[in-house]
């Protein structure tokens, strides 16, 4: 039996490799199109880095270019001469992302486990209760008034931390991941007399590592890229904003641009506005781009599970 | 383990109580989620009443004077709602059609490549734009299109051309926004379709190869027909969300640049601006409520359609 299967494999192999002319044409088209698109995906990032190392005069003279015309680290020197705002933004973002991801992961996986237990008679009802919120919402204004008037969360970091903790989509995704764990594990736990929570905590959670990595990354990314709730709920009274909202302000508000280097003794009219924006972007986004090659496979895994059955 | 606690002869209330007691641990495990969605999704719902009032901030929602449908009437008659609907729907149609065609094409082409390293790295690189915030996307676009020092402006000028002032030209933005959205979403969609292709039964493909089908024929007669259900279902769900706009993308690219609103203002950006900038809470929520209610029925319709085609894929 073994030798037969090896034999067929050897016979099948040459057919795969043999290429007809249309196959070659398709490959040529693919390599050209996909390579061009990939270059387009990377180029803008490269341009931001290149312009952040240019002098302001070079940009005024010849625009944003692919290579820094007059190499300069002045914008970074300015940023790091008074790094208060940037460091504050980093600390706020890391704390939000860390706490939010851990708490969110725990709650999502706990809910996901309970909702896929076939012996739990309330599971469909609760799932519908959760899912309905993605079908119908009251809209932005009532949500805003609830947060600001009822819960009194204006200028509080909780206004960013809390709404991003869970989403119906992430709970469904987690449910799909948990489904792949054999039901026998739950059964064996029950026979040994473990309670439901203990089964989840000691038997299921250790088996959920790929799911936790994927969903944890989705959560962490949503905290890292957060600027929306910040723009709704954090007024200028808040000293340290999350990174992307800090970047948003530096890009869009001249006053914030000046503040970002306040105390560095630069005459405001000499401020290298364009290069400073680019340098802020590099510092604010750098870590996620550097981490990207190592984490992207978990995103692909999540998409694949989500796509098979949403 | 058989759990038979429901005794049909006993009153229903008693058995409901027993269910609660017996499954208390599992219920407790769902409790944080139940409370979460209660606070952030269900508690705001009665607040939709604000759309029927002339809202006064210090009085709160329910003490503000009731004005009936006046807010809606104003939005209809002034043509504001029509404009927002037109922009939101047209952008979404462009996103859905162009996006799916490009994603599908890339996934199919990539599947024909035999070099595994190229396949993997291409997917990773294409996925990168999905990772970054819309704030950074707006900076990338600014970098390219800014009139004075943009990369594209500079190239156009050095070729002797006349660069239009893009940030003052409403007509250019539908193209820019569609292209940017394509740039951002192609990687994501390609990975989804690629997963669907890899999950296909490979025996048909091998049989076709043995029978001498060339690459075009294999794509035309095997890959595409196999993907058809996936495409149709993703398409229908996309239609279900046709009234929902990508706030982050539009708001970061356009912001408060009123010169561009005619072609770029969508429901989300209008709702946000009229609340945060003009403090017009009533009209803002009227638009939002209109979007929620109409959108809800569109989703129901799309889901019914999916259910009709393949009950397995229906949402509910």
Structure description:
The complex is a heterodimer of chains A (310) and B (316). By secondary structure, chain A is an all-alpha fold. Chain A contains 16 helices and no strands. The longest helix of chain A is centred in the C-terminal third of the chain and has 36 residues, at 273-308. Chain A starts with a helix and ends with a helix. The longest helix of chain B has 33 residues, at 80-112. Chain B is flat, with a radius of gyration of 26 Å. Chain B has 316 residues and is mainly α. Chain B has a single domain (70-313), classed as MetI-like fold, CATH 1.10.3720. In chain B, helix 5 (116-131) crosses helix 8 (173-198) and helix 13 (267-276) runs antiparallel to helix 14 (281-309). The interface between A and B is large, with 110 and 102 residues.
Query: C-alpha Rg of chain B, in Å?
Result: 26 Å
Give the chain pair forming the largest contact, with residue counts. A-B, 110 and 102 residues
How would you sum up the major sheet of chain A?
none
Structural class of chain A: mainly alpha
The H-and-E topology of chain B, N to C, reads as HHHHHHHHHHHHHH
By CATH reckoning, the class of the largest domain in chain A would read: Mainly Alpha
Task: State the end-to-end CA separation of chain B.
Answer: 28 Å
Q: What's the CATH topology label of the largest domain in chain A?
A: MetI-like fold
Quick one: overall form of chain A? globular
**Low confidence ranges of chain A:** 1-15
Query: Which range does the strand content of chain B fall in?
Result: under 5%
Examine the coordinates and then state which fold CATH places here, giving the name of the CATH topology of chain B: MetI-like fold
**Number of extended strands of chain B:** 0
Count of separate structural domains of chain B: 1
* Alpha plus pi helix count of chain A: 16
Helicity level of chain B, as a percent range?
A: 55-70%
Output the CATH homologous superfamily of the largest domain in chain A: MetI-like
What gyration radius of chain A follows from the Cα positions, in whole Å? Answer: 26 Å
